[in-house]
Write a structure and sequence with these properties.
This protein is mainly β. The protein contains 1 helix and 20 strands. The strands form 2 sheets. Strands 1, 2, 4, 6, 8, 9, 11, 12, 14, 15, 17 and 18 form a 12-stranded parallel sheet that branches. It has an 8-stranded mixed sheet with strand order 3-5-7-10-13-16-19-20. The chain is globular and about 40 Å long.
């Protein structure tokens, strides 16, 4: 069973049909929408500021979602996929975004709607990622627009993770 814990008087709140893997950790001031999934060894730690997550968002294995005390809350939109071992910290991620494996998004960055952050990219503090852009590298820079093929990947990934969660629910 996942570790869900109150901290500083805040208890995580979950929408309908969320899935938390057995080793997931969700603590503190966290509000999660419907059909969200938090996978193995992922941590969503709202101990020092709030974390708000929209609907149909998946937080994959080993990802860390956190914030900065009294300075930077974390807001994640709808249909967002945060891939394995990514770090999303004190920033805003708008709707229909794919954050690649091992990417790092730092405080006060804003990831625009329909964007992709490539695997391993580091988005520096206060970076504004234009909607519909692909950012890659260290530090992350705009490399091109999101094309129709990548839009389909963003949609498919967000749609598939609730389906994957059903497989795990069936085996319990």
């Amino acid at each position: 069973m996942a570790l869900v814990r109150s901290v500083r008087g805040f208890t995580p709140k979950f929408g309908d049909n969320c899935f938390l893997a057995e080793t997931a950790v969700v603590v503190g001031e966290v509000t999660m929408g419907n059909n969200c999934t938090v996978w193995y060894h992922a941590v969503v730690r709202g101990d020092v500021h709030s974390i708000t997550i929209g609907n149909n968002t998946n937080i994959q294995d080993g990802a860390v979602i956190h914030c900065t005390y009294q300075q930077a809350k974390t807001v994640i939109g709808n249909n967002v996929s945060i891939a394995h071992k990514a770090i999303v910290h004190g920033c805003t991620v708008e709707d229909n975004v794919l954050i690649g494996m091992g990417a790092i998004i730092m405080d006060h960055a804003v990831i625009g709607t329909g964007s992709v952050i490539a695997a391993g990219a580091i988005v520096l503090p206060k970076t504004i990622v234009e909607p519909g852009s692909i950012y890659a590298g260290v530090p992350a820079k705009r490399v091109k627009d999101v094309g129709d093929d990548m839009k389909a990947v963003i949609e498919r990934t967000a749609r598939n993770y609730p389906m994957y969660a059903e497989w795990f629910k069936e085996s319990q």
